[in-house]
UniProtKB/TrEMBL annotation:
Cellular component aspect of the GO annotation: MICOS complex; mitochondrial crista junction
Keyword annotations from UniProtKB, A to Z: Membrane, Mitochondrion, Mitochondrion inner membrane
Species of the source: Metarhizium rileyi (strain RCEF 4871) (Nomuraea rileyi)
Name of the protein in question: MICOS complex subunit
Function: Component of the MICOS complex, a large protein complex of the mitochondrial inner membrane that plays crucial roles in the maintenance of crista junctions, inner membrane architecture, and formation of contact sites to the outer membrane.
Species classification: Eukaryota, Fungi, Dikarya, Ascomycota, Pezizomycotina
InterPro entries xrefs: MIC26/MIC27, Mic26_fungi
Length: 254
């Protein structure tokens, strides 16, 4: 059995070789174009024109326009003028209210800004005024002991006039304090007088009165100085005359 199977396989091998050689050397026809598939695709809705089909002529555009019937003109409807709707009137009123609120807010903000500016200006003016009253370092004037001296002088004037009338009790301590201030704190008193004069200039009546009083005081002081000098000269003359008379009497007695 085994030998028979081997013989059958050996006899089939030359036959298979001959069949393969015939297929290899057999003449075959080669087409220049692929065969046209005549099956229509199922997803296409229109026919795809092939290369051999002739193009379909399309009519000109003017012919299409002439063939179409003219469209009928629609009648124009006249629109009647209507008044504003309630929504429009409500929107106008809301706009007025908003503008009124906006103006009120702007006015309030302006007032607040003006108040703050005036407060800042007042604070700056106060601090600059206090700083201007202090004496400069170059003068060497010290406020602490000088202020104590002024207070002591005012208290001394009050003690002196404690049993006098109310006019003296109110003016003498003030005069003592002012005099001590001009004596021990001349620069500070000068700054205070300049500041008071600046405020007095805002009221012309007070400024004129102050000027008249100051001029009267200056005239009185100058008059007192002149009279004091005249009195001193008169006393000197009298003393000189008396001394000369005494010396003459002494000489005559000898």
């Amino acid at each position: 059995m085994a030998a028979r199977v081997l013989l059958q396989r050996r006899s089939l091998a030359p036959l298979a070789t001959i069949a393969l050689g015939g297929l290899a050397f057999a003449p075959a026809t080669v087409l220049a174009e692929a065969p046209v598939d005549k099956k229509k695709p199922i997803y296409d809705d229109f026919d795809i024109p092939s290369g051999n089909d002739a193009p379909i002529p399309t009519p000109p555009y003017k012919a299409l326009q002439l063939s179409q019937p003219p469209a009928e003109e629609e009648p124009k409807k006249e629109r009647r003028a209507r008044g504003p709707s309630p929504t429009d009137r409500l929107a106008v009123e809301i706009g007025k209210v908003r503008m009124a609120l906006y103006r009120f807010a702007v006015c309030a903000e302006t007032k607040v800004n003006e108040t703050m500016d005036s407060a800042f200006n007042l604070e700056q003016s106060f601090t600059s005024t206090i700083a201007s009253l202090a004496p400069a370092r170059e003068t060497g004037e010290k406020l602490m002991p000088g202020t104590i001296y002024v207070l002591v002088a005012a208290m001394a004037g009050s003690i002196i006039t404690r049993n006098r009338n109310i006019l003296l009790r109110s003016t003498v301590p003030l005069a003592f304090g002012v005099g001590a201030g001009w004596t021990v704190l001349p620069v500070t008193m000068r700054n205070m007088s300049d500041l008071s004069w600046k405020y007095e200039q805002r009221f012309p009546v007070i400024a004129e009165t102050h000027v008249h009083i100051r001029e009267g005081l200056k005239k009185g002081v100058s008059f007192a100085k002149v009279h004091s000098q005249v009195g001193v000269q008169y006393v000197d003359d009298k003393v000189t005359d008396a001394r000369e008379a005494v010396e003459g009497w002494v000489k005559q007695g000898k």
